[in-house]
Amino acid sequence: MTSRNGVAGDHDDGKGNDEHSDKVAIPRHLGLFGCIWHLVGLIIGTGIFISPTGVLRGAGGSVGLSFILWIVCAIIQTCGALSMAELAVIMKKSGGDFTFILQAWGPLMAFIRLWVLEMIIVPSGGAVMIMTISSYLLTPFFQCEETPVVSLRLLGVFFLLFIVVINCISVRLASKLAGVLSITKIVGLVIIIITGLHNLTKGKTEHFDDSFDVASYDISLLPTGLLSGLWAYSGWSVVTSISEEVKNPARNIPLSIVISMSMITMVYLMANVAYFTLLSPTQILTSTAVAADYSVQALGISWSWLIWLFVAMSALGSFNSSIFRSSRVKFSSAREGHLPEILSMVSISRNTPLPAILSCVLLLVYLIEDDIIALVEYLGFIDVVFESVTIAIVPYYRWKYPDIPRPYKVPLVIAFLYMAALVFIAVMALYAHPVRNSIALLTAFIAIPVYYAMVHPKYKLKCIRPISVKTTRFLQKLFYCVRQEKKTF
Predict the structure, then answer these.
(1) Biggest CA-to-CA distance, the chain
(2) CA dist 48 to 14, 173, 196, 357, Å?
(3) Sign of the torsion formed by the C-alpha atoms of 124, 172, 489 and 412
(4) Residue 301, class by beta-carbon neighbours within 10 Å (0-12 exposed, 13-18 middle, 19+ buried)?
(5) DSSP-assigned letters across all residues of 327-381
(6) Under a CB-based contact definition with an 8 Å cutoff, are residues 278 and 199 in contact?
(7) What are phi and psi of 404, to 5 degrees?
(8) What is the mean pLDDT of the segment spanning 7-16?
(9) Over 140-168, what HEC string results?
(10) CA 140 to CA 143: how far, in whole Å?
(11) Closest listed residue to residue 371, CA positions, set 146, 128, 130, 126
């Protein structure tokens, strides 16, 4: 059993030993490379192809300062990932931030985090990925005219259903797809890097002259640069959200983070060098798709479609890992009673959290909205606030539960560094946009009345229970699923 302080029992050593393989449960199927594929698959999405504009804007147009911001954001996110890895290893349950906050700060705070993450940020971010895939695949066919919105959405629906079906069929198949798409996106970035190195050999270095020359710098721009860079490196929570599916998590989770973040940082820096060999700071600041603008100049119109294709595959890989993570968070939260019971069930024939995966189809609603990116930016501040709340659990648990077995233990200075960075970014963002971010916080707190009406055991509406039971039993028969028959944590 797992107690309220997050200490798990000794029935599972976390190394993939499976004494009752005939019982219905999500298997431990991810080794070190599986974790790396999911990390690379989710982190390298659309960020490196779009974020350079935001990072450069936050650097005041300074090329040199923009590279410093990229490195700083990599350090911040790596510190966060390694700190969260300790919580994942201690608590052993999947669910990521939701599980950590539930164990440490209680069900109400966990529900607010779940509300913001799974009801707004994840689906709207997924819609951005879906529309990016459609846009990059269709734009080459509509060079002289605007791409029809209907075509973009229809193609988006196709890819959404494709990824959902893959994840429903097999957890291993979804992980293999993550590996294949991770390789394709790395190939796309390698093409950008090689062409950039070729440009350097031809003397295309004029945009690196006076790299740190900034006439005047507005400090209020810094949150824009940091949030853009952090977004490009975000996604590492995929491995801290699926700890029940990782073999030997105490080793594979932190090691995969170190390997993946080191590799991604190097690739990002080299890709930015390539961009600046052909694009001036002014061109990047006014660009809505830096990789697309670069590919046209580097490869010409006849071959630029290669980069467009790889960007689309990159977004598809991120979307696959995003669905993988999101379904596990829903599965874990439903298991704790924070979402409908049906989402906590596992397919008898497939051993996948099929209802939780199918619930991701609701993302279709977000495809109706044209300006989804504005929603993501609007709520990015809330994400930073709740990350601060989550990371505070690390020092809190060190103080309150010093004797908990910690197979992996992050140095406290790393956790404090990440916490300080998040608090700084939150304060600066609130200073730069006080009204917008205050409204965003109020949006998060809408979850409070929803929690008491739908979740709280004492105050939730009594009329919901009979309807919920009948609906659950019907869907259980329809999807041929049951609650997991053994503990995997």
Answers:
(1) 73
(2) 34, 26, 15, 27
(3) negative
(4) exposed
(5) HHHHHHHHHTTSS-GGGGEEETTT-S-HHHHHGGGGGGGGGG-S-HHHHHHHHHH
(6) yes
(7) -65, 135
(8) 46
(9) HHHCCCCCCHHHHHHHHHHHHHHHHHHHH
(10) 6
(11) 128
Is residue 252 within 8 Å of 28, Cβ to Cβ?
no
Scan for tokens 């440009």, then name that residue. 199
| The amino acid at 183 | I
* Structure confidence at residue 362 (pLDDT): 82
- Relative orientation angle of helices 447-454 and 107-116, to the nearest 10 degrees: 120
Structure tokens at 445: 């707190």
Separation of alpha carbons 392 and 397, rounded Å:
9
Contact (CB, 8 A) for 216 and 428:
no
pLDDT tens digits for range 402-461: 999 999 999 999 999 999 999 988 888 888 788 888 888 888 889 999 999 999 988 888
Short-list 343, 288, 375, CA closest to 46: 288
Residue 391 CA from chain centroid, whole number: 16
- Judged against a pLDDT cut of 90, whether residue 307 lies above it is answered with no
Please give the distance of CA 214 from its chain centroid, rounded to a whole number.
33
To the nearest whole percent, how much of the chain has pLDDT over 70?
A: 92
What is the residue-averaged pLDDT of the chain?
86
CATH topology of domain 32-205+217-325+369-447: Amino acid/polyamine transporter I (1.20.1740)
Domain-by-domain residue ranges, the chain? Answer: 32-205+217-325+369-447
Tokens 């819609």: give the residue.
Answer: 127
Which of 243, 230, 235, 225 lies closest to 126 in space, CA to CA?
Answer: 235
Rounded to whole angstroms, how far apart are CA atoms 246 and 96?
Answer: 13
Residue 376 to residues 231, 299, 368, 435, Cα–Cα distance (Å): 10, 32, 15, 16
Tokens of 341: 């019971």
Q: Are 379 and 440 in contact (CB under 8 A)?
A: yes
Token duo for residue 306: 């290669």
- 161 CB neighbour count, 10 Å cutoff: 12
Of residues 465 and 288, the one with the higher pLDDT is 465
Exposed e or buried b per residue across 310-322, where buried means at least 16 C-beta atoms within 10 angstroms of its C-beta: bbbbbbbbbbbbb
pLDDT, tens digit, for every residue of 43-62? 987 778 777 888 998 888 88
